[in-house]
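Weekly structure sync, notes
Attendees: PL (lead), two postdocs, one rotation student
Agenda item 3: pending single-chain targets
PL asked that the sequence for the first pending target be pasted directly into the notes so everyone works from the same version. It is reproduced below exactly as submitted, 396 residues in total.
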Amino acid sequence: MGCTSCSTGKDGQPKGCKNNGTCGTDSCNKLTVFDWLSNMTLPNGVTPFNWVEIRFKNGRKVYYKNLENLTLSIGDIVATQAASGHDIGMVTLSGELVKVQMKRKKISETPEEVFKIYRKASQRDIDIWVEAREKEEPMKVKARQFAIDLRLKMKISDIEFQGDASKATFYYTADERVDFRELIKLFAREFRTRIEMKQVGLRQEAARLGGIGSCGRELCCSTWLTDFRSVSTSAARYQQLSLNPLKLAGQCGKLKCCLNYELDSYLDALKAFPKTEVKLRTEKGTAVCQKTDIFKGHMWYAYEGEWMNWHKLTTTQANEIIAANAKREKVESLEDYASELIEEAKVDFENVVGQDSLTRFDKPKNNNRRKNNRRKNTNRNQNNPKKPRPQNNNAK
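Predicted structure, written out during the meeting:
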């Protein structure tokens, strides 16, 4: 991290960022873009690209046209055109990289309605913007209480004021359609401003809140992941994962985004595999697939009626048998094709340092000493039998 609050302390221990991604240098925010073309000059006769990328609250990025030819750099606070009034945002990217981002997000360079940048924000613009931002947290508490009182099945996730404090956007999450017409009337009467409701997904809300995943690391969506791809249960099936909703769901309640990370590798490996529902027909009987090992390229088959005896084949051998069956030919048996299991030899490392084994406490103590003592006592008793005690005739 580049800011001072994220650096190390006196003893080399990390201080940790206490600004929650909103530090002054803006270097520990996942939405920050590094302009690697900033030190390069354009060829002679080439005009610079006049579109600028500007970021607002909640990761919202909008591309504006710099019609006034303002000298802008990353980190500048600017006043931009809005549907009504103006908004305040931060410049995150300028130059040729903006063209690349717009092409990746399929944004046209010649739209019907072009929003432009008015000016660099003045101190008065920033004061109004900061004052409006300070109202957002107490407003969110009241807004949630209003939704609870009206018994609406929704959650007010966040509130964003426009830069001129003329409009407030309420972000909410809901599992089903919500009729919030009465809620908007309460908001307008209580907060005295224009209200806009915007629904966000549960993944976007988890990215904004953050947290620790089941892997022990911070959530990918809150640290580096910006594009949310759709995740389906087929991704878990291809990777042979158990379809357990408790293990496959993330903190947002949806399927984990990390299920897509290795999916392409599994799909490439599965191209060499025949379909598992295809049966192998042999002279000995019909075999059905029981198990597959994707990266080792092995498949286990069992004869119908002999489900306990599995035969391991490679994908090449299975495809050969299927090709023979397609020609209406049967092989003799799977035993002719099955490859034997080869156990890897375990390497025993000798102790050359003279230290004791780390697992010495895992084994139970030997009771050889106690057994030897018992043997000695029994042998001694056998060699020296005890004399019978004399009877006392005077006893009553």
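Discussion points:
- Residues 203 and 252 are 6 Å apart (CA to CA).
- Residues 206-269 form one domain.
Action: rotation student to compare against the earlier draft before next sync.
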